[in-house]
């Protein structure tokens, strides 16, 4: 069988099956081993020791780094262990060091101390600058990239890549200048940020010209969307920007997408009352009338009357999802109103569909999720959907 055909077959095996195949013979090991490292996902389902073993392997076998196409998860072991000087160090031919782990943290330490994070970054960053074929880079773990020197380290990794998708989760308190990261990414189509302090000042129309999906704050979206073919937005209003979701200039900027925007997920901050929600919906229907899929997280609710007034103005809308929503008249702490809740919801749906004929799918999740007595989405599904900033 030609190696190309065998490679294609092996690529469809699961991770465990590939690992078993490696043990059969030297030929199949050489063929299949790079596939084990093509898609790496050391997320929160991995224990810290497993992440450390991955880094140790990549340190020993740096020839595997160009095989990595996708990395989604924690860049460093960020749970309960960190490098120290108690155990001997293992030196690789290229001069990199991977310390044997392992100094446990105190029981109440939720995240590694900053000095341990910095030590791991000194080890990991030189390795990942060699992983030049990564196209999907998703760095989770809430590592504070705003600490002194860290942003330059991340820029060193990203500058060597030609990304299709970039996602970053960072609670940095200081401003993060994304221009150096985005300037050399002409093929980037998805940018997903949980970085409230990300800035795009100085971004030109030549930067990220193919961006089709953006996730971030409303203010960030207003900076990066104009002139780019963004068709899907997932935006939230920053907590410190009390009236940000009512700023008409930001919605006018979103309307400048060359897409245009067809899918919108909007999260109002928890200080938004019923009147503010109504105004927010009015701005959306006025400036983004071509929305087909609309998801709204409404922490303080909105009346049926407002929905019936504003939603039909989205004449292309086919899918509507309302999160944290209770139909009018339903007590939010009620335990025994599931039948009444469903009746009120179906009554609202009938009215919406009558006023908005293009609407084919309407769902909601109840405001009080711990009881999960009514709604068209289960509690577990609801929690999986709550991936907002």
What does this structure look like?
This protein is of the alpha/beta class. Helix content is 33%, strand content 17%. The strands form four sheets. Strands 1-2-7-8-10-12-13-14-15-16-17 form an eleven-stranded parallel beta sheet. A two-stranded antiparallel ribbon has the order 3-6. Helix 2 packs antiparallel against helix 3 (26-36) and helix 5 runs parallel beside helix 6. The protein is globular, with a radius of gyration of 24 Å. The model is unreliable at 80-111 and 369-389 (pLDDT under 50).
Q: What is the secondary structure topology, with strand pairs?
A:
Layout: H1 3-11, H2 15-22, H3 26-36, E1 39-40, H4 48-60, E2 70-74, E3 81-82, E4 89-91, E5 97-99, E6 103-104, H5 114-128, E7 136-140, H6 150-158, E8 165-169, E9 176-177, H7 179-182, E10 190-194, E11 198-199, E12 213-217, H8 218-224, E13 232-236, H9 248-254, E14 263-267, H10 274-287, E15 293-297, H11 304-310, E16 319-323, H12 338-355, E17 361-364, H13 379-385
Parallel strand pairs: 1-2, 2-7, 7-8, 8-10, 9-11, 10-12, 12-13, 13-14, 14-15, 15-16, 16-17
Antiparallel strand pairs: 3-6, 4-5
Helix pairs in contact: 2-3, 5-6, 8-9
Condensed summary:
The protein has 389 residues and is an alpha/beta fold.
Keywords:
389 residues; alpha/beta; eleven-stranded parallel beta sheet; two-stranded antiparallel sheet; 33% helix; disordered C terminus
Helix content: 25-40%
> Which shape, going by the Cα principal axes?
globular
**Continuous helix count:** 13
What gap, in angstroms, lies between the N and C termini?
49 Å
Mean pLDDT across all amino acids: 79
**Strand residue content:** 15-25%
């Amino acid at each position: 069988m030609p190696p190309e055909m065998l490679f294609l077959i092996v690529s469809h095996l699961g991770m465990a099956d590939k690992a078993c195949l490696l043990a059969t013979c030297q030929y199949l090991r050489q063929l299949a081993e790079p596939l084990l490292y093509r898609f790496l996902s050391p997320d929160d389902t991995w224990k810290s020791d497993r992440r450390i073993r991955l880094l140790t392997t990549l340190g020993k076998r740096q020839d595997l780094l160009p095989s990595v196409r996708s990395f989604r998860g924690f860049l460093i072991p960020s749970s309960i262990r960190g490098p120290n000087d108690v155990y001997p160090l293992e030196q690789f031919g290229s001069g990199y060091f991977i310390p044997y782990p392992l100094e446990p943290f105190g029981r109440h330490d939720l995240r590694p101390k900053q000095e341990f994070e910095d030590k791991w970054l000194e080890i990991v960053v030189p390795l990942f600058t060699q992983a030049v074929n990564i196209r999907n880079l998703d760095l989770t773990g809430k590592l504070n990239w705003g600490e002194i020197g860290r942003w330059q380290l991340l820029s060193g990794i990203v500058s060597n890549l030609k990304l299709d998708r970039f996602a970053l989760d960072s609670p940095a308190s200081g401003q993060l200048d994304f221009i150096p990261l985005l300037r050399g990414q002409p093929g980037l189509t998805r940018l997903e940020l949980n970085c409230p302090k990300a800035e795009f000042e100085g971004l030109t129309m030549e930067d990220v010209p193919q961006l089709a999906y953006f996730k971030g704050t409303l203010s960030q979206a207003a900076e990066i969307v104009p002139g780019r073919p963004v068709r899907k937005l997932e935006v939230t209003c920053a907590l410190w920007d009390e009236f940000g979701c009512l700023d008409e200039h930001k919605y006018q900027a979103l309307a400048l997408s060359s897409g245009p925007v067809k899918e919108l997920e909007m999260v109002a901050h928890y200080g938004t009352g019923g009147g503010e929600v109504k105004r927010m919906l009015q701005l959306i229907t006025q400036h983004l009338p071509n929305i087909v899929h609309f998801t709204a997280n409404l922490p303080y609710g909105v009346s049926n009357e407002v929905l019936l007034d504003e939603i039909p103005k989205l004449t292309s809308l086919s899918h509507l999802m309302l999160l944290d929503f209770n139909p009018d008249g339903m007590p939010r702490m009620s335990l025994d109103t599931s039948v009444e809740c469903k009746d009120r919801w179906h009554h609202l749906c009938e009215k919406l569909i009558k006023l908005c004929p293009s609407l084919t799918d309407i769902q909601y999740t109840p405001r009080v999720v711990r009881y999960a007595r009514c709604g068209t989405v289960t509690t577990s599904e609801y929690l999986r959907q709550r991936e907002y900033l």
